[in-house]
Amino acid sequence: MEKSVCRVSGDALSSLVNFGNMPLGNGFLLPKDFDREYFYKMAVGFSEKSKMFQLIDQPTPEKMFHEEYAFYSSTSIRMAEHFKEFANSIIASEYLQSKDPFVVELGCNDGIMLKNFADKKIKHLGVEPSKNVAKAANEKGVRTCSEFFSAELAHKIVEEDGKADAFLAANVMCHIPNIVDVVEGINILLNDKGIIAFEDPYLGDVIEKVSYDQIYDEHVFLFSAISINNLFSQFDFELIDVIHQPTHGGSMRYVLAKKGVFKIKESVIKLLEKENLQGLDKIETVLKFKENVEHSKGELVTLLKKLKAQHKRIAGYGATSKSTTILNYCDIGPDLIEYISDTTPIKQGKLTPGVHIPVVPYETFKENPPDYAILFAWNHAEEIMAKEKDFMAKGGKWITHVPNVRIL
Question: The CATH number of the domain where 162 resides is what?
Answer without folding.
Answer: 3.40.50.150
